[in-house]
Design brief:
Order of helices and strands: HHHHHHHHHHHH
Mean pLDDT: 94
Radius of gyration: 18 Å
Number of domains: 1
Length: 262
């Protein structure tokens, strides 16, 4: 047996493991799964699955805090905090970098340079504060069942928006995460759609589900269009911003629809 075939796990398992490595801080023993490096492009279909896992932990934390009779605002803050810890603030970092670049850059090249700077400026700080506020506030005013529904759907659906962006939008750089990831094949894109759409139509009425999906797509379209105008395409930071902003739209949509139907 050659060294290259010493470890050979199922392809789908390797895809999920790769997505976990990229999107979370969960320890993944890759050396036990394969001797080859992870294939990022093939793993894209698993992004919604990983998002669901992250949000499921957040939903469990919220439910636990609620059972302990903690205020809903505290429970919401704890849920968001644990999800940020699991992802290592990956998407929040992208949002902050995009805000700094788009807000403070003189031209395309300057914006891209700022976005690669690890320091956070005024625009990035404000973006993070607004993101936290616009996620915690809606959750704090929902019922527990609504919070669980919102978290499970948003965790999966917002990661699907990353996959859609990679599929349909050009990369702004020749290098970097967005360029190196590549575009998912149509079959992989279909696999990525199954879980988030399934959750939407299982957990929500059909009409509300269509509204929530539409809101996520509008958020993704708006950020993508802005990115095309500002830097000519997407980067890894833009993908993080797409996740954050689409999640906010999903939370606000579920809150609004819930109040209209009550």
């Amino acid at each position: 047996m050659t060294a290259t075939t010493k470890h050979k796990s199922p392809a789908l398992l390797r895809d999920i493991a790769t997505a976990l490595i990229l999107l979370t801080r969960f320890p993944v023993p890759w050396h036990m799964l394969s001797d080859a490096p992870p294939n990022i492009t093939k793993s894209l279909w698993a992004y919604p699955m990983v998002g669901f896992l992250v949000s499921a932990v957040g939903a469990a934390v919220y439910t636990g805090a609620d059972l302990l009779f903690l205020p809903s605002s505290v429970a919401a803050l704890l849920a968001i905090t644990i999800m940020i810890m699991i992802t290592g603030a990956l998407h929040e970092d992208g949002l902050a970098d995009m805000a700094d670049g788009f807000g403070g850059g003189r031209d395309r090249e300057h914006k891209l340079t700022i976005m690669r700077d690890s320091r956070i400026g005024t625009y990035g700080s404000l973006a993070l504060l607004l993101s936290l506020g616009l996620r915690i506030s809606p959750l704090a005013t929902m019922t527990t069942n609504e919070v669980v529904t919102a978290l499970l759907i948003s965790g999966s659906l917002s990661r699907l928006m990353i996959v859609l962006s990679l599929k349909f939008l050009p990369s702004a750089r020749q290098d970097g995460l967005a360029a190196e990831t590549g575009k998912p094949a149509n079959s992989r894109l279909l696999m990525a759609v199954i879980l988030p759409f399934g959750l939407v139509f299982i957990l929500l009425p059909w009409a509300v589900g269509l509204i929530i999906i539409s809101l996520a797509l509008v958020a993704t379209w708006a950020v993508g269009r802005l990115s095309l105008k500002q830097i000519g395409g997407i980067t890894g930071d833009v993908l993080g911003a797409i996740q954050q902003i689409s999640e906010i739209f999903i939370f606000l949509g579920i809150l609004s629809c819930g109040r209209m139907l009550s």
